[in-house]
Write a structure and sequence with these properties.
Chains A, B: It is an enzyme of class 2 (transferase). Two copies of one chain form a homodimer. By secondary structure, chain A is α/β, with parallel strands linked by helices. The first copy, chain A, has a single domain, classed as Rossmann fold. Helices cover about 30% and strands about 35% of the residues of chain A. Chain A contains five helices and eleven strands. In chain A, the strands form three sheets. The first copy, chain A, has a six-stranded mixed sheet with strand order 5-4-8-9-10-11, sandwiched between helices. In chain A, helix 2 (about 30-50) packs across helix 3. Chain A is globular, with a radius of gyration of 16 Å. The model of chain A has no long low-confidence stretch (mean pLDDT about 95). The interface between A and B is large, with 46 and 46 residues. Strand 3 (about 30) of chain A pairs antiparallel with strand 5 of chain B.
C-alpha cells in the first residue's frame, strides 16, 4: 500500500524500545480514505493468497477495531473485537486468553463471547501491529478454543525487528502485513517497505 | 433507522440498572452493513439539521470507535478517538477530562492530543450510547478546551430514561440518536422508537 508507506514515512516516529508512534493514522486519529483502503487491500491480498469463505473477522480492542471493521466491510462479514476487561453486559459463556500490551506495559486478558465465534466459523485475525505477536497469539488461542478455523492473520504494520512473524510461523497460514518497518542506523531510525 | 430498531428488538437485552446488552451489533460484534448504514444515517440527519462544514469526528474508545469511523467515512473527514489510558506513544500536548463508565463502574480520564483537535475545527461528537452523558460531557469539555467549535452530538442508541439529553441541552446544538429506548413494564422491559 503506497499511501500507507507514504503516511508512515511522513507521520510515524520511532520512539525507541520498539515503539512506533503512529497516532496520526492508526492509534488515535484515523483517516477515512486510508483506513477504508486498508480493508480493501487486505481483502485483495488474502484473496490472492487463496483465502476464501471467511465468515468472521476477529480482533482485539482498542486499535484493532478500525482495521478489522474495514476488512469486515470489504468482505461483508461480521467482526468481533475481544474485550480487555469484562464489561457488565458480558454474561454467558466466553473464551479468554492472556496477552501483554507493549505500549501500555501491562498484562491483559482478552475475552470473546461464545455467541460470536464457534466451530462453523472460518476466521481472519486482523490487528494494527505485528510486533512480538503477544496479542495475536492470544487471539489465535481463543479462535482455537472456539473450534473455529483460522485462515489467516493480517496486520497493518509489521515491525520486522520484533520477530512476531516467526512466532506465528508454525500456524502455516498466510500472514499479511500492509507495510513492514525495519530499524536502521543502529536502531535510531527506520525504513518502510 | 428501521434496521437498527429491528436489531435492537431482536438482539438487545435489558439487564437492569440501566444496562442494555447490545453486544451483538455495537459493543462486541459489529455487522458491516448495519454499521456502515449508521454512518450514512448520521450524515443525512446532521445535514437535514443544517450542520455543514464538519472537519473532524470525535469519540472515545472503545465502543465509540466503530460508529465514529463510519461517520468519518460518510463525511470524508478525519476521526480522533480519545484514549482512556495514556499510551507510551502519547507524547506532547494534550487535552483531558474525567468521565465515569457505567458498564465498567469506574472513573476514567479521556485524553486527546492537541495535534488532532484545535481552533480551526468544526466537530461532531459521536458515541455508541447516550445514557447519563458522562462520557459525552467529558468529550464536550475537551472540544471546548481545544478551541474547536462543537456542531452536534450523535449517538447510536439513546436511553431516554437516563436523562443524558437534558444534560446536554444547554449546548444548544443538534443532538441526534438513531434509536431511542424507553423502559416499560415497571422497568422490566423496553420499547424502541
Amino acid at each position: 500500500m503506497k499511501a500507507l508507506k507514504t503516511e508512515i514515512e511522513n507521520n510515524a516516529q520511532y520512539l525507541g524500545e520498539g515503539i512506533i508512534k503512529a497516532d496520526a493514522f492508526i492509534n488515535h486519529q484515523l483517516l477515512p480514505g486510508l483506513t477504508t483502503d486498508m480493508g480493501l487491500a487486505f481483502a485483495e491480498k488474502f484473496k490472492n493468497a487463496g483465502v476464501t469463505g471467511i465468515t468472521r473477522i476477529v480482533t482485539a480492542e482498542v486499535s484493532g477495531i478500525a482495521p478489522a471493521l474495514v476488512v469486515a466491510q470489504a468482505m461483508d462479514v461480521p467482526m468481533v473485537f475481544a474485550r480487555k476487561k469484562k464489561p457488565a453486559f458480558m454474561t454467558g459463556g466466553l473464551f479468554s486468553a492472556h496477552a501483554r500490551s507493549r505500549t501500555k506495559a501491562e498484562a491483559v486478558t482478552l475475552y470473546i463471547s461464545d455467541r460470536f465465534l464457534g466451530p462453523g466459523d472460518k476466521v481472519l485475525i486482523i490487528d494494527d501491529f505485528l510486533a512480538t505477536a503477544s496479542t495475536l497469539k492470544a487471539l489465535v488461542s481463543i479462535v482455537a478454543d472456539s473450534g473455529a478455523q483460522l485462515a489467516g492473520v493480517g496486520c497493518v504494520i509489521e515491525k520486522a525487528f520484533e520477530g512476531g512473524r516467526e512466532q506465528l510461523a508454525s500456524l502455516d497460514i498466510p500472514i499479511i502485513s500492509l507495510a513492514c518497518i525495519d530499524l536502521v542506523d543502529q536502531g535510531k531510525s527506520f525504513i518502510v517497505s
